Amino acid sequence: QSVLTQPPSASGTPGQRVTISCSGSSSNIGSNVVNWYQQLPGTAPKLLMYTTDQRPSGVPDRFSGSKSGTSASLAISGLQSEDEGDYYCVSWDDSLNGWVFGGGTKLAVL
Amino acid sequence: EVQLVESGGGLVKPGGSLRLSCAASGFTFSSYSINWVRQAPGKGLEWVSSISSYSAYIYYADSVKGRFTISRDNAKDSLYLQMNSLRAEDTALYYCVRLVGVDQKYYFDHWGQGTLVTVSS
């Protein structure tokens, strides 16, 4: 059971907009930033969004992040087939004194 | 180019020990906190442990506390994870991950390719 809660799956057709949620608590998302990682099949995770809404260089502006209270969201607009993979949110937890990940969301592009 | 290369994984019996290593290059190793993150086969990511740049701050996930020990040698640009009393549930791909911070806001920016640990009799 992950500390951060994500939907196990999400899907959309090419060109659509998809949102992946990440729900936590006051000790993690409520008081710390959220980071997002994309993991394509057979590869190591890759930084997708940091400090809630910042994109690393090379990440298209189709990806955006937001946070409200104890929840965060990753939005992907103009969905493309190469976006298929697993997406994870992560935040520092002040009570656990450690990093906590969401369980991951498998994104399918239909 | 930042590189993190893990080694030391393998097959070990329950109750056994293993020592993982992570060789860093392409950046000033002693300036960064480094973490271990693992991923069981077909499962999600789980943070394992963190060590600050000069080992002043060390943290562990509850699942490994008392069994795993993280350490580093800045002179050798290397990170280690000593794993004792291994259990089947420790079976996973172990990633070495660099932590960076901007204005006290932190994130993992570079990941190694991982080393596989299998605990089985």
Which key terms come to mind for this protein?
heterodimer, A: 110 residues, mainly beta, 6-stranded mixed sheet, 3-stranded antiparallel sheet, 45% strand, B: 121 residues, 4-stranded antiparallel sheet, 56% strand
- What Rg of chain B do the Cα atoms give? 14 Å
Q: How do the SSEs of chain A run, as a string of H and E?
A: EEEEEEEEE
Q: N-to-C terminal Cα separation of chain A, in Å?
A: 28 Å
How would a textbook summarize the main sheet of chain A? 6 strands, mixed
Query: Which range best describes the helical content of chain A: under 10%, 10-25%, 25-40%, 40-55%, 55-70% or over 70%?
Result: under 10%
Largest interface, C-beta within 8 A: A-B, 25 and 22 residues
Structural class by helix and strand composition of chain A = mainly beta
Taken from the alpha-carbon principal axes, the silhouette of chain A is: globular
Count all strands of chain A and give the number: 9
Give, in order, the helices and strands of chain B: EEEEEEEEEEE
Q: What is the β-strand count of chain B?
A: 11
Structural class estimated from helices and strands of chain B: mainly beta
What's the Cα radius of gyration of chain A? 13 Å
Mean pLDDT rating of chain B: 97
Largest sheet of chain B: 7 strands, mixed
In helices, the fraction of residues of chain B equals under 10%
Describe the structure.
The complex is a heterodimer of chains A (110) and B (121). Chain A has 110 residues and is mainly beta. Chain A contains no helices and nine strands. Chain A has strands at 9-12, 18-23, 34-39, 46-49, 63-68, 71-76, 85-93, 98-101, 105-109. In chain A, strands 1, 3, 4, 7, 8 and 9 form a six-stranded mixed sheet that branches. In chain A, strand 5 (63-68) and strand 6 (71-76) form a beta hairpin. Chain A starts with 8 loop residues before the first strand and ends with a strand. The model of chain A has no long low-confidence stretch (mean pLDDT 97). With 121 residues, chain B is mostly beta strands. Helix content of chain B is 0%, strand content 56%. Chain B contains no helices and eleven strands. Chain B has strands at 3-7, 10-12, 18-25, 33-39, 45-51, 58-60, 68-73, 78-83, 92-102, 105-111, 115-119. In chain B, the strands form two sheets. In chain B, strands 2, 4, 5, 6, 9, 10 and 11 form a seven-stranded mixed sheet that branches. Chain B has a four-stranded antiparallel sheet with strand order 1-3-8-7, with no helix packed on it. In chain B, strand 4 and strand 5 (45-51) form a beta hairpin. Chain B is globular and about 45 Å long. At the A-B interface, strand 3, strand 7 and strand 8 of A face strand 5 and strand 10 of B.
